[in-house]
Write a structure and sequence with these properties.
alpha/beta; 271 residues; single chain; Solute-binding_3/MltF_N; Basic amino acid ABC transporter substrate-binding protein; three-stranded parallel beta sheet; six-stranded mixed beta sheet; Iontro_rcpt_C; signal
Length: 271
């Protein structure tokens, strides 16, 4: 009887050891899989409200919320770093950053050097002027002094109207500095993305500014997440973008920042 009990006890010990090892092995595999996903370095220029800006040292904006949603949808953790506009491109070119979400318009010229995600936002350039300005179209900018953010599609759009090396195009490091030039009477107008312009006018009623659109001259644009060339992250985040659009997360974030419904049909037509 004692021998039988000893044999049974020994068998139970082996079963417990095998079960524990199997469970431990499964847990370790899962942990390794999670750990294998690096923390992504995501760079931006946090001087472009309502897309990305600093509020008492905290980064906030449409792109900031979209990145948080994409992180959840993709399973990737990330660190969002404000580096400035020109360094965004430099970091991705040198591959010191993994990606950038910073209201970056997808252009054929940029696609020669970088990869882009599927579009996540539709934009178009707009003109900001004082309320009493007689500027009504882009053609009215001829002969005027126009402030732009350097290296943006706002600059490129104005150059198409006024000429590439026109001295009346004033280029600034940030769009906020371009707007300050207008307010200080150093420029007749500012040209930048409509999301930024409309947001500024709405939140600064005392500045007596208005926006003027000209869709016959300014072409619609789409923002995309930008990566170094041949990035393996593109298909991952393309799926994540589709997921947050399909489950309603995108619309919720869009309405939070722009107080209206997004045109999903026009946006998804580009995917």
């Amino acid at each position: 009887m004692l021998k039988k009990l000893s044999a049974v006890s020994l068998l139970l010990v082996f079963v417990l050891i095998f079960t524990a090892c199997s469970a431990g092995s499964g847990s370790s595999s899962s942990e390794k899989k999670t750990a294998s996903k690096k923390v992504l370095r995501v760079v931006n220029d946090a001087s472009y409200p309502p897309f990305e800006t600093l509020n008492k040292g905290k980064m906030e904006g449409f792109d900031v919320d979209i990145m948080a949603a994409l992180s959840k949808a993709s399973g990737y953790k990330y660190k969002l770093v404000n580096v400035g506009w020109d360094p965004v491109f430099a970091e991705l070119k040198s591959k010191t950053a993994d990606m950038s979400i910073s209201a970056i318009s997808i252009t054929s010229d940029r696609e020669k050097t970088y990869d882009f995600s599927d579009p996540y936002f539709r934009s178009i350039n707009e003109i900001m002027v004082p309320k009493d300005s007689k500027i009504k179209t882009a053609q009215d900018l001829k002969g005027k002094t126009v402030a732009v953010q350097q290296g943006t599609t706002g600059q490129f759009a104005v150059e198409k109207v006024l000429g590439k090396n026109n001295p009346k195009i004033k280029k600034f490091k940030t769009v906020n500095l371009a707007i300050m030039e207008l307010l200080n009477h150093g420029a007749d107008a500012v040209v930048a993305d409509n999301g930024v312009m409309d947001y500024y006018v709405k939140n600064n009623p005392g500045k007596n500014l208005k926006t003027v659109g000209d869709e016959s001259t300014f072409e619609g644009e789409f923002y995309g997440i930008m990566y170094p060339k041949n990035s393996k992250l593109k298909p991952v985040f393309d799926k994540a973008i589709k997921k947050i659009i399909d489950d309603g997360t995108y619309t919720k974030i869009y309405k939070k920042w722009f107080d209206k419904e997004p045109d999903l049909e026009k946006l998804q037509s580009q995917n």
